[in-house]
Amino acid sequence: MKNNLAKVSRSRSVNAAVANSNLKLAVAKTPEALAPDHSRIISYLEAHKPATPCLVVDLSIVAGKYGDLRAALPAAEIFYAVKANPAPEILDRLVALGSSFDTASAGEIRQVLAAGAKPARISFGNTIKKPADIAFAHAVGVDLFAFDSEAELRKIAQHAPGARVFCRILVEGKGALWPLNKKFGCAPEMAADLLVGAAKLGLVPHGVSFHVGSQQLDPAQWGNAIAEAKWVFDRAAEQGVTLRMVDLGGGFPATYGPGVPTVAAYGAAIGRALKASFGAGQPEIIIEPGRYMVGDAGVLETEVVLVSQKSYDDDRRWVYLDVGRFGGLAEVEGEAIRYRIRPVGESAAPEAPVVLAGPTCDSADILYDKAGYTLPSDLESGDRLRLYSTGAYTTTYSAVNFNGFDPLRAIYI
Amino acid sequence: MKNNLAKVSRSRSVNAAVANSNLKLAVAKTPEALAPDHSRIISYLEAHKPATPCLVVDLSIVAGKYGDLRAALPAAEIFYAVKANPAPEILDRLVALGSSFDTASAGEIRQVLAAGAKPARISFGNTIKKPADIAFAHAVGVDLFAFDSEAELRKIAQHAPGARVFCRILVEGKGALWPLNKKFGCAPEMAADLLVGAAKLGLVPHGVSFHVGSQQLDPAQWGNAIAEAKWVFDRAAEQGVTLRMVDLGGGFPATYGPGVPTVAAYGAAIGRALKASFGAGQPEIIIEPGRYMVGDAGVLETEVVLVSQKSYDDDRRWVYLDVGRFGGLAEVEGEAIRYRIRPVGESAAPEAPVVLAGPTCDSADILYDKAGYTLPSDLESGDRLRLYSTGAYTTTYSAVNFNGFDPLRAIYI
Predict the structure, then answer these.
(1) In A194, A331, B124, B363, which residue has its Cα 20 to 30 A from B149's Cα atom?
(2) What is the pLDDT of residues A256-296, one digit of tens each?
(3) Is A183's CB within 8 Å of B366's CB?
């Protein structure tokens, strides 16, 4: 077996509790984000009545989100998380706006380069990479790589010699609707040792990243994580290694419903946390928004294929749509992400409870059973519904051809 | 609102308990299926070393399964559930063997016709169909349609006038690894009324279908369902409608591990149940195997991208593969379907516990965390693993390009 590059150094004293209590105070008065303006998309849908299911994405909303986030966190370099929606139209627009890009694979790097992004604007942010893909990224000029283990660090040292590397740490992400688990990141003490080891392997130990959980509704959650990052900076400095960058990850929310703080509130909370932990010696900051940037920009129109009841005493109707979990709505798993769903056109009928399901013969293809959705009681086969804020993590989750259904179609306006 | 076509008729007296207790007795001595012979696939993999991830399917295993099932249930017409794996190579082979086909969509009907199947051999088995797709099926000569609601029945009457229809009923499917829920089927009393109504709409009320749950490991589960079907036959007969067919659905298992009864045991249990419920007046029988027919025929070879630990005191390694939940292994959801996973080549190292995860940046892309998998302690990046009995519900569940990764590639030999 290989020698452990990292040494054990467990003593830790993060002063996070103090910083965190200050942040909690700030959250109480957090302003709420306004519902996105989907009027351009609605006009398009009314004018073109596209075959369903169909996602329509308004690129001007993407641009607006980019601008709002820049204003809220002016010190941060924005690396768009391509996996949220890699459509060329979105990548082109973001390249034009000056965005950088967080990529998950060689495939995504190719897509971003094809959109005209400079390699210096690309981070290979997946901590799980094949050697050939690292070598490809290095060959095309990508110089920033994530890792969270010694084995990955050694791969990067071999196939992207001299590159800048950052280590993802495990943090607790309370309050996220799509909480992360231990799949990514390592303990901060291991991170510090590995970053010190990176220099010995000829790499540039650049910084620390974390993720506080997707659709994170509590801006205060960045406070503890930033304090952990500072702890890693200090441990590395004690061993003669100067770190420069903190990657605040993603987690910035789409406006699925009420209760979502403004991006300005996130910016303010993060600014306070950075000041509390780093004081005058502020690090370089990067962020990796995906859902925030494109979620609100999309509306998915779907057709009701069937409305039925299972027995004479059933108190809920089953409403089957022409899109489901395997046609793009994978994120309904667990029913945590709850899209706003409304019928097209007016109905005077009262609302009544429904179970919403997809069109496949798969019994797991149920969208919302426990979430308490209601729809007009006169809804019937052929009616159309709209699912709002569906621009992120929909098209690419689509199955290739499950049950013989085509992948989700998308139109970018 | 429309008038209810179906009348309420709730009195029921299924004598299922007696039949069921007899069947339970039979299960105790059920013989176990042998592990499938993957030697042709292994030879292919050794000779060609295909780029991973790659599924290799042995068509001779599919043919063997078809033959075994015919022998076990000689009275049944086999409708292959195309959704399990719609590869043209599989459809071609099954057409040549004389199989019929259960389809979920117009797309699948096109695929089956392209393989040379006669329309009379095709059932449109999805209870959720768009009017245009019903009309398409009718136009190309498909004459057998599933339904489980009045709204669907009216659609079929309008767009496939004169067709044969069968009603899916809700049954309890205990003992299935991928249990069904209420998404499909209606209460038997409603089914009886709707089948009687079908005749009034100009359709041919043909029979009853059910599904006892996918990967159903208890052959006795068909007993209750068959008794329910007989109850519907009797209620329809009382109203002057003669039903002819019982569709026993799918649920026949792949050999993921020990404890799987032989298909002969299923045939015997089903034969006894049919005799107990229907006596001398046996109905036409159809079955819809999907997983059973192609699951064992596939082996998926994957590469280990990374082996890591999250902290110095972590007692399990994380093993990241180049295939995950969004690249074809969707059925690991909930960790009920547990594929046999073994490394390629010999290792003298002891086995040690692992968490298995996919290559995407998605924290939900974890294959097995709680299932207790172990792998050799010297496993490292670049090693290959094989996942056995992965021929069903893998290729078509693949996402189009999630995280920039290509869909699962498959080779048919």
Answers:
(1) A331
(2) 999 999 999 999 999 999 999 999 999 999 999 999 999 99
(3) yes
Q: Are residues A355 and A221 in the same domain?
A: no
Residue A101: alpha-carbon gap to chain centroid: 13
Kindly determine whether residue A310 and residue B170, on different chains, have CB atoms separated by under 8 Å.
Answer: yes
Tokens of A103: 């990529």
Tracing tokens 């009034």 back to the chain, one arrives at: B200
Report CB contact under 8 Å: A361, B318.
no
pLDDT in tens, A288-311: 999 999 999 999 999 999 999 989
The token pair that represents A325 in the structure block: 């979990």
Interchain CB distance below 8 Å, A308 and B186? yes
Question: What value does the mean pLDDT take over residues A53-64?
Answer: 98
Q: Are B226 and B353 in a shared domain?
A: no
Of A107, A151, A305, the CB nearest to B308: A151
Domain that holds residue A386: 296-412
B187: nearest CB among A10, A178, A310? A310
What lies within 8 Å, CB to CB, of A27 at 6+ separation is A218, A219, A220, A261, A265, A269
From the list B214, B366, B396, the residue facing A402 with the nearest CB is B396
- Torsion angle defined by CA atoms of residues B209, B212, B214 and B217, in that order, rounded to the nearest 10 degrees: -140
Q: Which pLDDT does position B174 carry in this prediction?
A: 66
- Domain-ending residue, one of A254, A275, A293: A293
How many domains does chain A divide into?
2
pLDDT in tens, B188-245: 999 999 999 999 999 999 999 999 988 999 999 999 999 999 999 999 999 999 999 9
Note whether A191 and A96 are same-domain residues. yes
pLDDT at A346: 84
CATH number of the structural domain spanning residue B306: 2.40.37.10
Question: Is residue B238 within 8 Å of B203, Cβ to Cβ?
Answer: no
Q: Same structural domain for residues A314 and A345?
A: yes
* Cβ <8 Å between B397 and A361: no
Closest by CA position to A185, among listed B332, B326, B356, B363: B363
Chain A residues lying within 8 Å of B81, measured CB to CB: 361
The DSSP letter of residue B82 is G
Residue B372 has pLDDT above 50, yes or no: yes
Cβ distance B303 to A130 less than 8 Å, yes or no, reads: yes
Mean pLDDT for chain B?
A: 92
DSSP state of B100: E
pLDDT digits (tens, 9 = 90+) for B84-125: 999 999 999 999 999 999 999 999 999 999 999 999 999 999
Question: Following DSSP, what letter does each residue of A174-232 receive, concatenated?
Answer: TTEEE---TTS-B-HHHHHHHHHHHHHTT-EEEEEE----EEE--TTHHHHHHHHHHHH
**Residue B121 is part of a domain; what is its CATH number?**
3.20.20.10
What's the gap in Å between the CA of B88 and the closest CA on chain A?
Answer: 13
Total residue count of chain B as it appears in this document: 413
CA nearest A129 in B: which residue?
A: B305
Contacts of B359 in chain A (CB under 8 A): 105, 126, 128
Residue B19 has pLDDT above 60, yes or no: no
Asked if residue B379 and residue B333 are part of one domain, the reply reads yes
Smallest Cβ–Cβ distance between A359 and the set B128, B187, B382 belongs to B128
| A72-116 pLDDT per residue, tens | 999 999 999 999 999 999 999 999 999 999 999 999 999 999 999
CB contact under 8 A, A152 and B308: yes
Please tell me the distance from the alpha carbon of residue B318 to that of residue A116, in angstroms, as a whole number: 36
DSSP letter for A346, please: -
Residues A321 and A289 in one domain: no
Residues A4-40 pLDDT 10s: 444 433 334 343 333 444 444 444 567 888 889 999 9
Active site residue B361: yes
pLDDT tens across B35-54, in order? 899 999 999 999 999 999 99
**Which of B279, B294, B309 is the last residue before a domain boundary?**
B294
Catalytic residue among A54, A167, A186, A361: A361
Distance from CA of B231 to the nearest CA of A (A): 16
